[in-house]
Amino acid sequence: MHALDNVIWQALSTRQAHLGESRNSARRFQPEISLLGGFPAPTEDHYDSLASLVQPGERVGLFLKEDPIELAAWTIALSVPLLEMVCDNGHAPAPQNGGMIVPLGEQNVPEMMSLTQLTLPGPFSARTREMGEYWGIRDDGGELIAMAGERLKVPGYTEISAVCTHPKHTGKGYARTLILWLMSRIAGCGETSFLHVRPDNKRAVKLYESLGFSNRTLLRYVILQKK
């Protein structure tokens, strides 16, 4: 199995096991950290194990090859295509304007939450930043206007995630700057960057391709809600 096959399960079984919780054959991140969960394979028994981890009304996000069929314990709240991209270009150059980048920590969570709620780059919770490093860019007044960070980690690979820019500041290259910064740091650890993006987000896909990312596989991002 490739390190990026069934990547949520692999992250929760290896480098990020300490951030999760498990029961029988299923695992999920602690809810305050991430919506994501997984299991070895999409079988009825594994879906039942996942259901035993959550309360009625709770949701879990999965990366699947296809939608599940006839789940007794679950309803499908969302199902959308998700493109997985990998950068195999080796060491990425550091951004020329990396001096504007600042680290983001626990004290910055409220403004990180505000920016992600405004821009909707994907699920971001109060403790998501514990999954890896997060970095941001501020305007002259000190407001956080762009950010990006690390999410899933498996042996040899780290995911770049939560890439977002305030709508008033798009088109200034901030996303590119932050992604290059993270790519350089990830490569410096001897690892490869990867990411996930909606394939209909043409602007983001074009940016990632220009930075050396290529398509690896097409998945479905499915959010299940327990009945």
Protein traits:
alpha+beta, 35% strand, 2 domains, 227 residues, eight-stranded mixed beta sheet, Aminopeptidase
- Give a short account of the largest sheet: 8 strands, mixed
Query: What gap, in angstroms, lies between the N and C termini?
Result: 33 Å
Uncertain ranges: none
* Oligomeric state of shown chains: single chain
- Whole-number total of structural domains: 2
Predict the CATH topology of the largest domain: Aminopeptidase
The number of E-state strands comes to 11
CATH superfamily of the largest domain: Gcn5-related N-acetyltransferase (GNAT)
Radius of gyration: 17 Å
CATH class of the largest domain: Alpha Beta
Mean pLDDT, as a whole number? 94
If strands are numbered along the chain, what order do they take across the biggest sheet?
4-11-5-10-9-8-7-6
Q: Given the structure, what is the number of helices?
A: 5
